[in-house]
Structure formats: structure tokens, C-alpha cells
Amino acid sequence: MEFKKKVVQDTEAVLDNGVLGSREDVGNEEDVIYVNNVKVTDKHKYVIMTIMTLFLLASSFVYSSPAEIISGMNLIIVSPSILVTDYFEIANIGASLFNSAIITLVGIIVAKVNKVEMNGPLIAALLTLAGFSFFGKNLYNTWGIMAGVYAYSVFKKEAFSKYTVQALFSTALGPLISYVTFGIGLDVVQGILLGNLAGFIAGFVLPPLASHFLLFHQGYSIYNIGFTAGIIGMFFMAALRGLGFQTETSVNALSGMNEPLSMFLIIMFSIMLFTGLFLNQFSFKGLSDLFKLSGRLSSDFVSQVGFGIVLINMALLGFMSMFYVILLGGDLNGPVIGGIFTVVGFGAYGKHLRNVVPILLGVYIASLFNVYDTASTVALLAALFGTTLAPIAGHYGPLHGIIAGFLHMSMTMNVSYLHGGMNLYNNGFSGGFVAAALAPLFESVGFLKTRADNYENLYK
């Protein structure tokens, strides 16, 4: 390992379509130089991400016996998985962790085989994959959609490595496959064929739509695939309703397991923090530079400040998110832990404490004035996933972030009907609308941009 410095602007990659290629596409690994940080090879990053995934796998056997995991996996796979389906509740904790670990390992293998660099977008995709495997994604409903994205890459005669990250994120539409297969009364063969056909079509059309919709919110909502999946899910749900089928979105989540689940999270984030400190010479040097970045898409923190600092940032976001839930008296369950994992994953791709806290505060204030208890799973999910709007706080300032979080709380409760729970990234869907409305308003009425502009030349 060696020590080098990097010259990168926060605004370099803004409005990139988020489709990142293989290492050969983006340049040699030696071209990636870090800020006051240990240079880590891509192989090291893959090993670290694999170890964290194996921790998930090992933890599954701590919470449940092999027999319980097998029976729980059966329940998970045949579930319609409409938002919000807590696998912790309908199956068991061990099976949910096992499901998450296996799916994440598959994601790592797919990325490695296609020679995709372990950068910020890929880390975010893997942690999002892991998190949503607690409440919506499973070993059955992910393949058809990824196959659709792969088919699109073949159609375009481009390497799948360019679309691998999008393929992992595209599994947001997993409930579409599960619902058509198990939820509308078809026999098994018909359900499997039609469900995966629907998923394949959704996956095929997602990449071109994602590139286009990024312009809609100008990169101020990090979950761009969430907005795209919401639009696709809306069309499929409209077709299903036209055929007389209707979904019921509700929250049936586990409660009363905060102590054992908090220990699991504390151990995981502690490992992440220690690893980051080890790679960063046991210091927090560089973290303040990270806090000065806006996080606007596409901000690859790994290439901008280094893998060690990114791991530290991810761990800090994990601890903060967990304590936010506990301090409000909320329950740690599948959806909530999925939200925490997603926040942690995007700690490599747009989120940090300074641009996340204003969003959380805005959602919390909004929850004081509406019918949802601040400690309810619904309100907690709105807060955790509402951090998709972190770039607004990072670019315009904390007050603007609070406003965005406040508006997001109301918006996210009203858009799920449009896609009928087919899109797991519901907050990404609503966040896209909020960002698209607020960004031009903040610009046109003269609100001054803050840190993002001030630190545009930070590394020059």
C-alpha cells in the first residue's frame, strides 16, 4: 500500500447517468489517487465487502437454526413481497439475514465477474441490495429484472459491466415478479412465466429511462433508480388494476427485538469503523474534506477521498441512524434495518453526517404535525430513506435540507398508491418529485448555494 493525493472536484461527475463501467472503461486502477489516505487495491475492497457479507451469513445462524432458516426461506420466496413486507416477521430473523447475505454475495460475484470497480456506486448498490433483502427482495424475484438489464446491454452491444450497478439497483421492482407469480391466483407455471416476463420487460426499459429521469431532479435525489422504478411500477400497476387486480399496501413489522438486533448492528458498524481507521492510519484525517462535498449525483466518495474515510463515514452513518431509531422509541425490524443499511451504503455515494442530519430533522418536524407517530415504522422509513435528498442540504445548506425533509414526509405517504407497492424504493420515487420541485425554486428565488460552490475547488 502507498500514500498519494487526489485532485477531484465535487462537481466533476454531476449529472452523470450513474452507469459506471468496468475498470477498463474508467481507467487503470493506478489512476485513482486518494486524499491523505492509504491506497487500497480493488482486490482489497472486494475482500472487505465479502467479509462483511459473510458476517451477515454467519449472523443468520446465531439467530435461527438451519431448519428454521430453510423453512423461513421457503416463506420468503413465495411471499408476494409487496411494500412493506417484513421478512423478519413473516419468516424469522435468521432466514432474513441468510437471504440478504446470499443475494449480496451474488451481487458481489456478478460485479467481480464483469470486472466492475468496487467504487462508491457499487458499494451503495450492494448495501441497498442487502438492506432490501430484509423486506422485499429474495432469491426468486431478482433474476428476471437483472436479466432484462443484461438483455438491454446485449441489444445496445455494450459490455454488461456498464450496466451492472443499474442491474443491482433495478431489483427494486422485485415485488412485481413476486406479486404476478404468487398474488393474482395463477397456477405455478403461469405465474412463474408471466411474473418473470414482467420483470424482464421492466429491467429492459429501466436503463434508458434512468438516464433520462436523472435530468428531471438534476441529481438532487440520490435514489435515481427509485424514481425510475416508481414510474415503471406505476404503469404495471395501472395495467394490473385495469385487469381487476389490486394490491393492499400495509406495514406488518416485527417489534420487541431491539436488544439483539442492536447488538448485531453495533458489531457490524464497529468492524466497519475499525477497518476504516486501519486504512486511514487510525485517524479521522480527511473526514472534514468529505463533509464539504455536496453529495449531488454522481459523487463517488471512494475516488474522491479514499476507501478508508468512506468506511469511517459509513460506520458513523450507521451508528447515527440506529440511535435515531432507538432514541425515538422505534423498533428495529426488517424495513428499518434495511433503511439503515441503505443509508450506510450511500455513505460511499453521496451521504455524510452534515447533509443527512438536516433531512432527518425535517422529516421529524413534519411527523410532529401529521397522523403518523414519530416512532412508527412508517415515519422512521420516511426519515431514513428520505436522506435521498441529502444533496439538497449539501448543496444549498441545512435550512434547505430541513425544508426538503419536511415536504418529503408528506409526499412519500401519498405516492405509494401509484405503483401499488411494486417499487421498493418508494422514497426514491417521492424524493425525485421533491427534488425536482425544490431545486429550481431555490435557484429562481435567489437562495444562495452554500458549501458545494464554496468548496468547488477544494482539491485544486
The helix-strand sequence is EHEHHHHHHHHHHHHHHHHHHHHH
How helical, in percent, are the residues?
Answer: 55-70%
Q: Between the first and last Cα atoms, what is the distance in angstroms?
A: 24 Å
Low-confidence stretches: 1-37, 448-460
* Major sheet size, sense and barrel closure: 2 strands, antiparallel
- pLDDT averaged over residues: 89
Radius of gyration: 20 Å
Q: What count of structural domains? A: 2
Strand order of the largest sheet: 1-2
How many beta strands in the DSSP annotation? 2
Oligomeric category: single chain
Strand content: under 5%
Q: Which structural class is indicated by helix and strand composition?
A: mainly alpha
Shape: globular
Number of helices: 22
Question: How is this structure best described in words?
Answer:
The chain is mainly alpha-helical. The protein has 2 domains: 42-242, no CATH class; 258-454, no CATH class. The protein contains 22 helices and 2 strands. It has a two-stranded antiparallel ribbon with strand order 1-2. Helix 10 (188-217) packs across helix 11 and helix 17 packs across helix 19. The protein is globular and about 60 Å long. The two termini are 24 Å apart. Mean pLDDT is 89; it is low at 1-37 and 448-460.
